[in-house]
Amino acid sequence: MAYVSIADRDHEIEHHDPQTFLTKYVWSQDHKVIAIQYGGTAIFVGIIALCLSVMMRLQLGFPDSFELISPENYYQFITMHGMIMVIYLLTALFLGGFGNYLIPLMCGSRDMVFPYLNMLSYWVYLVSVIILLTSFFVPGGATGAGWTLYPPQAISQGTPGTEWGILLMLLSLAVFIVAFTMGGLNYVVTVLQARCRGMTLMRLPLSIWGIFIATVLGLLAFPALLVSAIMMILDKTLLTSFFMPAMVSAGEQTSHAGGSPVLFQHLFWFFGHPEVYIVALPAFGIVSDLLATHARKNIFGYRMMVWALLAIGGLSFIVWAHHMYVSGMNPYFGFFFATTTLIIAVPTALKVYNWVLTLWQGNIHLRVPMLFAIGFVFTFTHGGLTGLFLGNVTIDLPLSDTYFVVAHFHMVMGVSPILVVFGAIYHWYPKITGRMYNETLGRLHFWLTFVGTYSIYLPMHYLGFLGVPRRYFAMGNTDFMPDSAQTLNASISITVIIVALTQLIFLYNIISSLRNGKKAGGNPWGGTSLEWQTPDTPPKHGNWGHDLPVVHRWAYDFSVPGQEQDFTPQTVPADEVPVGRDHGVDH
């Protein structure tokens, strides 16, 4: 269906129009303000996680040189860094940040369908962040169980933060899931029920498709993490035995009996692998839009791209146990999950081919957003290829606890989505602020970040093949590791510090450009999708003034033959400018 009446409720434009400073900027129900709140909070905790990674690398590169970094602190840094980056930064930023900002604008809506619930989702998310950060200051400190929180280690004596730290971590995750559910329901309903006239599903930009499918994955996958968090809290506080087996701890028999630690692993990774695509699918969609816009060329294979997103989303639920090969499983199950892992690589590879073919013979403008988008194609392809190694049982077993896994995971789930985040912020910065950023600083930021991250993670693959174990506080003297491994670790640590400091360039550029940047105008990139057609920049409350837009074509009419402009907005009727190609026409 192209249009549902809920999108055109003009008589309700003022139904939550802010009247005071608090209702406009604090308790705001405007999706754009909420998006900035989500983004600002996520970036803040991301900076904390980045600092934790620097602390870890200082210990690995220069062992026992810093009294501040004890073994307990090191494992707490690992745990908090991983959880913050995956959940509280990337998930919140892609869905809460970009999802909130882009969905109503790209769908031609005035706001989310449930604006009050949208406001609540941010504040509940903020509560989850506060609970998480509080764990640094409780007795025993934050949990040091590793970001996967495997029992029985996570709640057994001897693990850092085993008293208050783990409980606050689990409670924070539960609260985060509540926030995500409130926001996620909003995103899904808005995409399905609040598109403007003419906006068929097959005319939606791929950014919206990626965010929409990722949200559906989250609504299906996060309950597994929620119940596992609740069950582990009960194991810790009420001494139930969902995950805790009979065991001896500190020389004494515990009161637990009959629990299954592997059950937690199944629940965690049933959430954990879809989580990879909860982050990746919005990145796929955003990259598609950045490449098409800055190459001045329609996206290659739009319909194929949509079906590939759907296929990846569906298949992500039947590959989770490839994270558990070392836990032991029937060889037939290992064969099944290795096979599904290879199968999910097919639609992912199709997207890479389509991105490359979109660039082929395009009028490429190497602006900062385009640099980050192309950088993503490189890093994601590289990370995906190493994933084929780890998807094979016989190769995964010896590599599983080595730095090869750290390198692969960070190339796929760290570097690649972060590059998209930067590219997207630079791309939509003129729309959000009405100002242009400093192009020179943006290019400097890209090259230092891109080259720096490769200098960090390419050597880690080599360390993995040497057998250097991950999550070790200190390596000690070993026969299988040459002295060059420690030299390499030191160089990686120095590069991490340089890349971390490079992000100050980004922060300075974004903040200083709010005042000093040139005025951007409404459509500085020559974009075709609806967010670039708003009557005001930045868009005002209600987005569209009195009348909602009407869509006549898909979002990728770039360089249509015979036209003076190299772009045709979605709002231009077909009788004025012929439609270059439109997958959204009703048949």
CATH architecture, by name, is Up-down Bundle
Radius of gyration using CA atoms only: 24 Å
The major beta sheet can be summarized as: 2 strands, antiparallel
How are the strands of the largest sheet arranged?
A: 1-2
Task: Please explain how this structure is put together.
By secondary structure, the protein is an all-alpha fold. The protein has one domain (29-242, 259-533): Cytochrome C Oxidase, Chain A (Up-down Bundle). It contains 14 helices and two strands; from the N terminus they run H-H-H-H-H-H-E-E-H-H-H-H-H-H-H-H. The protein has helices at residues 21-26, 31-61, 71-107, 115-134, 164-193, 206-237, 261-295, 302-315, 331-359, 368-390, 393-399, 403-433, 439-466, 483-516, and strands at residues 248-249, 252-253. The protein has a two-stranded antiparallel ribbon with strand order 1-2. Helix 3 packs parallel to helix 5. 50% of the residues are buried.
